[in-house]
Structures are given as structure tokens and as C-alpha cells.
Design brief:
about 210 residues; alpha/beta; six-stranded mixed sheet; two-stranded parallel ribbon; 8 strands
Amino acid sequence: MGHVETKRLLARDTDPAAPVPLPDVTFETHRTLHVGGERIDLAWHGTNHTPDNIYIHFPDHDTLMLVDINLPGWAPYDSFNVNEDVPGSIAAADTAMTYPWKHFIGGHMAGSAPATTWSPYQQYVSDLIDSIKQAIVAVDPTPFFAKYGNNSWAAVQTYQAAQCAYAAAPVIEKYTGVLAAADVYTASTAFILLESIRLDQGFGSQIHP
């Protein structure tokens, strides 16, 4: 069983020499299973980490599983967990909190974790977004473009690297010792969030959504 998009993606990406089995049963938004006396509620609330990533709720066990959005106790993996939809992934955290649950399974780095693990993650993302918006205003692009002249990509790369460094520094300082790997992955996450803020929201960019 899987989401309809899971079946499509598996069919598209499978190795013809060793094809993977496709789901026999698919659903679009919601499906409830009763297996071995257990109830499992499956739900798709829109694209987040991947186009087919779903919420798996075990109501009789007060447990929610949502893969690769929050890795309890850890900062997001490289480039904001390589999320395919940044706004959708940020919104997914709020959606998860609408479920009644006490235990959370994030898919990596830990088994089950209590609901209290969500607050540091959500605050981390919020703080980093605020810091990026400050960097967009504070870091002057002029010296980078003056230095590289017609080599526009070099100017853009170094300018954005400076923005990410500016944004990441206070967040790394705040969350080192709070979220593991904040020191090594915050800069790459800052870049992905920077691009989403610019391109999805049109903040500080000539490109508007």
C-alpha cells in the first residue's frame, strides 16, 4: 500500500533490470488500515520532504510517524533534509502538531521521541529564517560584484555564501549543544531557506512568486 505518487515515482525510477514491486493499493488523501487489531491512519496533506511523504498515525498508541521533517534532537540534515518542497516541509511541522500524539518517529537518528522534541526544531527553523531575512538586508552585494565584474556567477556565489555565513553564525551559537549537528549543517540549510525565501516568497529578490 502507498500513496498514488509513491506508485508513480517507483514506476518512473525503478531499475528495469531489477524492478521494485509497486503498491497494489493506493490512496490520495486518507486511508485507515486495521491490521492485527491495530488501527493505522494514513494521510497525505501535500508535498513536503517528497511529493508522496505521508503522516502515519497510530491513535491507540499516541504515536505519529512523519519521515525526514524533524529528526528529534538533531538539526536538519544537509540542505534542510534535502527537502523537495521547502514551504511544504515547514508547514508539515505545524500540521503534525494538529494530531493527538505523545510519541514521534522521525525516520532517522532516533527511535521514538516525546512531543517536546518539536519545539526546539520549530524554533530553530524560525530563528534561521529570521536570521536569513536580516542577512538579506545587512549584507551588501556591491563589493562582490565590483570584485568579479562580468563573472556574475562568481559574484553571486560569494555574495550568497556571505549571506549564509551571516545568517548561520548566531543560530549555530544558539543551538550548539541543543540540537546535534547544528554546527555542521546550519550553513547548508541556510542556503536552501535563503533560496526559498527569495524565490517562493519574493523577499529581497527581483523575482516574485
